[in-house]
Amino acid sequence: MFDIKGKVAVITGGYGVLGASMARCLAEQGVHVAIVGRKPEKGEPLATELSAIGAEAIFCQADVLDRDALVAAREAIVAKWGSVDVLINAAGGNMPGATIMPDKSFLDIDFAAFNGVMNLNLMGTVIPTVIFGEQMAKQKKGSIINISSMTAQSVVTRVVGYSASKAAIDNFTRWMAVEMAKKVGEGVRVNAIAPGFFITEQNRTLMTNPDGSLSDRAKDVVRATPFGRLGEADELHGAVVFYASDASKFITGTVLPVDGGFSIFSGV
Ligand SMILES: NC(=O)c1ccc[n+]([C@@H]2O[C@H](COP(=O)([O-])OP(=O)(O)OC[C@H]3O[C@@H](n4cnc5c(N)ncnc54)[C@H](O)[C@@H]3O)[C@@H](O)[C@H]2O)c1
């Protein structure tokens, strides 16, 4: 029931730290992978690496906020492999200007930066979901996997815009799950993974000191995590395969924490 060999997966932000790890996992399972991102110099080498693992892989250049580029990517993918079975919306992250540092307050919220991070994370999930979801609706089959965050449900200081955008992704996940079920049928499912804390490009300055050691904030995160550590990217693989496969075929609209217990711990 976990067999996903031969499926076609699209991963936005596919050369990011978490996206690339998921892409490698899918390639190892025999999935054809399309990496969607803005920079060919990062996407092309990853596609070559994935092709060597076994399945076919391509890079499609598109910003997740660019409808026309995403339509072109979809057409190229369908022309090559005939379907889109899995979409992982992994592009996104926090932006430094949208963070309220400890010496600042709500009065310092930069509205443009807040809007920017909302747009990237929310619309950067909504737009690809619509473009690739249209193909899944035609097929009456597909699995959409959004990426939420611990910040969506409980308060994590500083990251006000990012938190709002991820809470909106949880809501959109549920809305789209019902929409697809009612308008298309149970073949198209929409779920989300809520990762705990992993050191990646978009949070490196918050989580590490210039010398690479854990920042005080990262140490606070570790203290608030029952497992007492940060996550490793490959610890998201199980959730990805679960949602991409028939193992989850009666499951839609859910948000699965993969967080070492962070989300269920009071901290005491
Ligand atoms: N790292 C964590 O602890 C953590 C926790 C929870 C959720 N997440 C989420 O996981 C996802 C992946 O992030 P990551 O942590 O691997 O960070 P990352 O910075 O390594 O990867 C994010 C990728 O998104 C791409 N991207 C950004 N804007 C884009 C755009 N407009 N169009 C196309 N691509 C764009 C970036 O180029 C990058 O490759 C994000 O949604 C992030 O919010 C991360």
Fraction in helix: 40-55%
Number of domains: 1
Q: Got a strand count?
A: 7
SSE class: alpha/beta
Largest sheet: 7 strands, parallel
* SS summary, helix count: 8
SSE pattern:
EHEHEHEHEHEHHHE
The CATH topology annotation reads as Rossmann fold
**Share in β-strands:** 5-15%
CATH-wise, what's the superfamily? Answer: NAD(P)-binding Rossmann-like Domain
- Sheet with most strands: strand arrangement: 3-2-1-4-5-6-7
| Average pLDDT for all residues | 97
- The first-to-last residue Cα distance is 39 Å
Task: Identify the overall geometry.
Answer: globular
CATH class category: Alpha Beta
Uncertain runs are none
Bound molecules: nicotinamide-adenine-dinucleotide
In the CATH classification, which architecture applies? 3-Layer(aba) Sandwich
Instruction: From the alpha carbons, calculate the radius of gyration and give it in angstroms.
Output: 18 Å
What does this structure look like?
The structure is a single chain. The chain has 268 residues and is an alpha/beta fold. It has a single domain (8-260), classed as Rossmann fold (3-Layer(aba) Sandwich). Helices cover 43% and strands 14% of the residues. The chain has 8 helices and 7 strands; from the N terminus they run βαβαβαβαβαβαααβ. It has a 7-stranded parallel sheet with strand order 3-2-1-4-5-6-7, sandwiched between helices. Strand 1, helix 1 and strand 2 (32-37) form a beta-alpha-beta unit. The N and C termini lie far apart (39 Å). The relative contact order is 0.14. The mean pLDDT is 97. The structure holds nicotinamide-adenine-dinucleotide. Nicotinamide-adenine-dinucleotide binds next to helix 1 and helix 4.
